[in-house]
């Protein structure tokens, strides 16, 4: 038996003669339906159904008509007229029809509407449901001719792929405009002042070299005298080994290569001296690093990741930053009161100059802070340089004597809580500390005007100064504060 919730079965012998319509589901009642032919009025519907109305004229097709729906198997397709109130009138129940499965849907049936164009099949279509109007798209902004972040990311990706290589090619990217895909841009300003960054770089670049290490890597260096002396790092001349090389190849910014002799190096300060043959070399000017202030603009020049003659710009982020560096065996090798900068420094920059905005050297780039695993370190905006005043003193001693002296206070340091000062656990007899009246157990809180918070900081501040320097120290003893003048000395061999 049929009901108002399912379509009646079609008479198989009448080529889909229109029968009583079946009720529409809720989604079908949302919009009038389009029919191929009107439906004659039906007898009164059951009590729960509204009376059917004559079919109105066929509505115009919507702008985007819905695709025709397939006719349900074994049933005729119908379109219901609008009911009172604009709805779709539900169809009355239809009589049960016998089903002959050998009829029109049989493969050999002559009355199959899909094979007989003359059959009176009715195809039902439904208009698309109404949708809210589409908001107009905002007007697209005109492209900015400045290079965007996409280029930065692209170059970073290329750089990551060629880490450790020399002379690698870096792709050039360009932004496109709206008109015909043409590349947009303007001619750069070529009338540069000698004091501009470009003007400064042009003057100093011939004095900066790439140092090719014995293990196939590279560092950087720079000329400091017209007779061919160069400064670089101790860990550059050591390469992947434990002993400095006797000679290394150096590459100039013009592409020429020459051999440099390793005059000497000092692992405690991470300074090394090289010398190239010939005369009339253009040295860089060395500035007074003691006058550097936080916020001063700086340039870092060198060969990061083998990319020779690279220049980055930043500022001095901090001064007298205590830094520990390790050798290839993981042992602490040097302690320094470094200049911290946010200028990009990467592996390969080691030994290159950190300059002020005028191109005068204020430090030797030597280390970076990193959160990456071993072998994956890269710039995160925290780099360190040896103050050039300290490096020059060490270099002069290496050239003169082949080695460098190291400054000491003459006391063993005990464990102290961070921020409370440094405890002198044992003062060495006859040392500078002993001569100044310091005793075992004194808590040193200030050194040469700088508040002391931990052992590493105190050692770095001492090693920064030359032997013979007189400093003022402040210390606490038995709850009382005292001060003393200490003349620093060189450590005994």
Could you please describe the fold and organization of this structure?
This protein has helices spanning 149-161, 197-204, 234-238, 388-401, 432-435, 455-464, and strands at residues 208-212, 218-223, 229-232, 247-252, 257-266, 271-276, 297-302, 310-326, 332-341, 353-356, 361-368, 383-387, 407-408, 411-413, 422-427, 443-447, 450-451, 470-477, 480-487, 489-490. With 493 residues, the chain is α+β, with helices and mostly antiparallel strands. The chain has four domains: 1-131, no CATH class; 197-276, Trypsin-like serine proteases (Thrombin, subunit H); 289-401, Beta Barrel (Thrombin, subunit H); 407-490, Roll (Pdz3 Domain). The strands form four sheets. The chain has a six-stranded antiparallel β-barrel with strand order 1-2-3-6-5-4.
How would you briefly describe this protein structure?
With 493 residues, the chain is of the alpha+beta class. The chain is built from 6 helices and 20 strands.
